[in-house]
Design brief:
Layout lengths: L1 E6 L1 H4 L10 H12 L3 E6 L2 H13 L4 H23 L11 H9 L4 E3 L8 H11 L4 E6 L20 E3 H7 L15 H9 L4 E5 L4 H8 L5 E4 L1
Parallel strand pairs: 1-2, 1-4, 2-3, 4-6, 5-7
Antiparallel strand pairs: 6-7
Bound molecules: adenosine-5'-triphosphate (ATP) and magnesium ion.
Magnesium ion (MG) binds next to loops.
């Protein structure tokens, strides 16, 4: 079984720091590999990407330049994860699809950051799930699923245990489309999940072991029905 995991940048890189703790996800990935899973990772940009994007925007950079800066930081985060995983990881971070195919051919854990402007790293996760023929896409974030509204802003928001891509597009209608401000799944991610019928789970990734529960099929987070 192949699984693609989007690791929330906000979980691994919540601020600018010299003490990032990648060990929980390193243990998780080692365990999945030992159990015979094909593991494909996307690492988000987190707060470091947002700092860089905000500074670029303050100097008048256009949105695609801001996106590109965010992509570069996400690739750096991915490189850090590759270094932490050591020899089970593909040592290079693909930034185009020929390199991605070469990375998949290594049979190692493939790690992506960003790919191209106009989309979030969740869309990258959709593409990676497609390309790696993953049976499941696990999308980790800092909340425990999809809510009727942003739960950080609306305490009365209710969580969905299941939602279709159409319903989710409506829920996220007002969500951001600017660099660094894409909330949860952007339209590109939704389109890919739908066209390739990729079962996707949005879960709280602050405890990496929640990913194991999601893979085992436990009732956790929100399942997106493609
Ligand atoms: N309807 C919704 N349901 C759940 N969360 C939502 C919703 N709308 C907006 N959000 C927000 O989306 C946030 C998660 O997306 P965000 O891009 O900020 O983080 P991430 O994807 O975990 O990190 P990164 O983008 O760095 O990888 C949550 O913290 C939540 O506040
Ligand atoms: Mg995000």
């Amino acid at each position: 079984m192949n699984v693609t995991i989007k690791i929330s940048g906000h979980i691994l890189f919540p601020s600018l720091d010299s003490q990032y703790d990648l060990s929980g996800y390193v243990d998780l990935v080692r365990r999945l590999k030992a159990d015979g899973y094909g593991v494909y990772l996307v690492v988000g940009g987190g707060e470091p990407a947002r700092y860089y994007i905000k500074t670029a925007r303050r100097y008048g950079a256009d949105e695609s330049t801001c996106d590109q800066i965010g992509i570069t930081v996400a690739c750096l985060n991915a490189k850090l994860m590759a270094a932490a995983l050591g020899d089970i990881a593909c040592p290079f971070i693909p930034t185009n699809f020929d390199d991605l195919d070469r990375a998949i051919a290594t049979g190692k854990v493939v790690i992506l950051g960003g790919l191209q402007p106009g989309q979030s790293t969740n869309a990258v996760a959709g593409v990676l799930a497609e390309r790696s023929r993953s049976d499941l896409l696990v999308n980790t974030t800092t909340v425990d699923g999809v809510y009727t509204n942003d739960p950080r802003k609306d305490p009365s928001a209710r969580r969905f245990s299941e939602i279709t891509t159409e319903e989710l597009a409506k829920v996220l209608d007002n969500a951001g489309t600017k660099a660094g401000e894409y909330a949860l799944l952007d339209p590109v991610a939704l389109k890919i999940i739908k066209r390739s019928k990729i079962t996707t789970k949005i879960i709280d990734g602050r405890d990496p072991m929640n990913v194991l529960s999601a893979i085992r099929g436990d009732a956790i987070g929100t399942t997106i029905v493609p």
